[in-house]
Amino acid sequence: MPQTEEVLFATESQQLDDYTDQSPEIQTDKYLIFSSSGLMYGIKADMVKDIITGYAITYLPRVPNYVRGVINLRGQIVPMVDIRLRLGKPEQDNFCGIVVDVDGNQVGILVDMVEQMVDVPLDAILPVPTSSGQAMVSGMCTLPDGNTMLELDCELLLHD
């Protein structure tokens, strides 16, 4: 009789293994979440090079108003784009910066606050409705905490 029980348990164990092998693995991307003007935005983590605060920004004449100037980041000159101004929102003095790599060039984005790093399932990111008027947003999804993340298209930051 004990041999029958061992076979029964082995069969149940095999069934559990078969079940876990058949469940599809969820593909995710890491996103750095930040807030600006009361909205949550996300940037793919592999684009983020640095998070900075307290850098003196040197004003540059004859640049678009959303380019607040440049900083010297460890010997490299990095232009700083104010995401609020770039999206047509009012300017704010308190900020934190996210340095991203856009096509091999480093660009700083001034944001209100860096929130968190999250894993987002690839199939959870939905296209933005064309009538929404969200410039520079390539997708959106609902985060685990219930907030909506707008995926920022960093390549459009410096293009008019």
What would you say this structure looks like, in words?
This protein has 160 residues and is α+β, with helices and mostly antiparallel strands. It is 16% helix and 42% strand. The protein is built from 2 helices and 10 strands; from the N terminus they run H-E-E-E-E-E-H-E-E-E-E-E. The protein has helices at residues 2-22, 83-86, and strands at residues 28-36, 39-44, 48-52, 67-73, 76-82, 96-102, 105-111, 113-121, 137-142, 148-152. A 5-stranded mixed β-sheet has the order 8-1-2-10-9, with no helix packed on it. Strands 3-6-7-5-4 form a 5-stranded mixed β-sheet. The protein is globular, with a radius of gyration of 23 Å. 21% of the residues are buried. The model is unreliable at 4-13 (pLDDT under 50).
